[in-house]
Amino acid sequence: MNIENKPDKETLEQWHADPANWKLGVFYYNKKDKRIFPPKRIGYLGWTINFANPLSIGAFVLMLVGILLITTWLNGNKVHK
Fold it and tell me: Going by C-beta distance under 8 Å and a sequence separation of 6 or more, which residues neighbour residue 17?
């Protein structure tokens, strides 16, 4: 790792490739990795949550609450015929 305690690209790739960091093969769990949304195991599918990072879990919960609030609001504003 460099002076700023940010891992270099090689370290990030090693963490990503390590099967021990993937619980049940799909859930990323790495306490050393401070990224909130690391790439999924198959990179072109987008990002996942680092379940070892409390900020990741908080961001995920906030997104879920936001989606639920928006869908509830949209469903409440439908015109019923």
Answer: none
Asked whether residue 38 is domain-assigned, the answer is: yes
* 26-71 pLDDT, tens digit each: 999 999 999 999 999 888 899 999 999 999 999 999 999 999 999 9
| Distance (Å, whole) CA 34 – CA 24 | 21
**In terms of pTM, does the model score above 0.85?**
no
Which residue segment(s) compose the domain that 64 sits in? Answer: 9-76
Going from the C-alpha of 55 to that of each of 21, 31, 60, the distances in angstroms are 18, 12, 8
Q: Please give the tally of structural domains in the chain.
A: 1
